[in-house]
TrEMBL record:
The chain crosses the membrane at residues 12-35, 55-79, 100-123, 143-162. One of its GO terms (molecular function) is transmembrane transporter activity. This is Major facilitator superfamily (MFS) profile domain-containing protein. Its main location: membrane. It comes from the Eukaryota. It is found in: Membrane. It is a multi-pass membrane protein. It comes from Aegilops tauschii subsp. strangulata. GO terms for cellular component: membrane. Keywords: Membrane, Transmembrane, Transmembrane helix. The keyword Membrane applies. InterPro entries: MFS_trans_sf, POT_fam. Belongs to the major facilitator superfamily. Proton-dependent oligopeptide transporter (POT/PTR) (TC 2.A.17) family.
Length: 174
């Protein structure tokens, strides 16, 4: 059905796969923010905010959908990117395409680490409580997840803008 709708033999183009993964990841971050908001509310209702070691009366099953979505997003994004870098590079430069794929992954790790450090510095300045407090019941991971969802949305808009202008390399038969 997807093949008929898109007119693509594989159902989705390489860039559509990556975009699909980005959308799923953004939805997962929204889900994570909602679950964390619920967890913090449960901590407040049960007077557990000041107890860093408290077990919040909330089932682990609340986490399953977001972890499943992150797994699905990874499949779409990582496989799509790897195929894109392999398929769209000239055959003489395919090893460079794979190196670019891994470089993107490494840069993402550095950027996420820098983002966390920056947010921690900003939220701690002026004597405030860090979003990443040692006491998770006082932390605000929900804000962080909403920020990630917002950044993902902005990134998705930019991604769509760029990919709509991309021209795929022609396949040679034979």
């Amino acid at each position: 059905a997807l093949r008929c709708a898109t007119g693509t033999p594989s159902g989705l183009t390489l860039l559509q796969r990556v975009g699909t993964g980005m959308v799923v990841s953004m939805v997962a971050m929204c889900g994570a923010a909602l679950v964390e908001t619920q967890r913090l509310e449960m901590a407040r209702k049960n007077n557990l905010v000041d107890n860093a070691r408290a077990i919040i009366p909330m089932s682990w099953a609340w986490l399953v959908p977001q972890y499943v979505m992150i797994g699905v997003a990874d499949v779409f994004v990582l496989v799509g990117m790897q195929e894109f870098f392999y398929d769209q590079m000239p055959s003489e430069l395919r090893s460079l395409g794979i190196a670019l794929f891994y470089s993107v992954m490494g840069i993402g790790g550095f950027v996420s680490g820098a983002l966390i450090s920056l947010i921690d510095h900003i939220t701690c300045s002026g004597g405030g409580e860090s979003w990443f407090s040692d006491n998770l019941n006082r932390a605000h991971l929900d804000y962080f997840y909403w920020l990630l969802a917002g950044l993902s949305a902005a990134e998705l808009v930019l991604y769509i803008y760029i990919t709509r202008r991309y021209v795929y390399k022609e396949k040679r038969v034979g």
